């Protein structure tokens, strides 16, 4: 039986998860960004996996666009694994809804705790919205997440190998449904994140899509050596080098790959990320990130 796992990653957590599962169940591993410019996506696999990081308790915009491009999914066995840094919310329910529009549905959905790769409030009141910091990751905790993933891996593989159904692993379901009921994602959450990203105008884009504008918050400082790595790891060609420095083009996935992979920690988001330690999964290399974008090994 043909199996394929599609994945998206910014700092490697989701790639490791996708790669580990693919090795055990014998699936073909395909990077989502390498397909995203196609007019449509058809898969001849009977089993399809989708692995991605949770963004704002939801699904990255690129994963939504990927599902939108897929042809009829009727009769496919589909499973998903989302990686997250503490709360996956109802991300898998959102993905399931997207798949329904393609006549598909999630037979099983798993969430995997991994190191958090984004920013958190620094609790400074002055310039609050621009003072978010990178979360410190305790090395012991980090190893614990990796070990726990190895413990969960076999169970996931058993379920998907035998095409079983499994309840979607969601967190804080009642709260997240209330947030949706009150439309807080499209109002409070959207305006807060746009402010954090330093975007001062108004936009009618839905919240998930409006994250593309948060790259107004990125700058590169004096440590930049013009190496161009940020342009190469960006999964969606959102960075151009101008006079040896990165310039963001406002169709960002907010994956944080540019900030986290810059070898000189030169890329900042807001005013308070310069002292934070950069993170990427130790088993993922720059060449994996280039492959994600191009599909070429
Ligand atoms: C834009 C953005 C939003 C995020 N939102 C959440 C979130 O709502 N809940 C959570 O637990 N982690 C969140 N995270 C953390 C990632 O989901 C987590 O670190 C994930 O494992 C990263 O996967 P990757 O290494 O494959 O990119 C967010 C990260 C980013 C970049
Ligand atoms: S990766 Fe860092 S050092 Fe290299 S060009 Fe980009 S900002 Fe400059
Ligand atoms: S600009 Fe940076 S954060 Fe935005 S998609 Fe590219 S690598 Fe990701």
UniProtKB/TrEMBL annotation:
Q: Does the keyword Iron apply?
A: yes
- Limits of the 4Fe-4S ferredoxin-type domain: 216-244
In terms of InterPro entries, this protein maps to:
4Fe4S_Fe-S-bd, 4Fe4S_Fe_S_CS, EFR1-like, Flavoprotein-like_sf
Keywords assigned: Iron, Iron-sulfur, Metal-binding
What Pfam families does the record tag this protein with? Fer4_10
Gene3D superfamilies linked to this entry = 3.30.70.20, 3.40.50.360
- Supply one GO molecular-function term: iron-sulfur cluster binding
Q: Which NCBIfam families match?
A: ferrodoxin_EFR1 (NF038196)
What name does UniProt use for this protein?
Ferredoxin-2
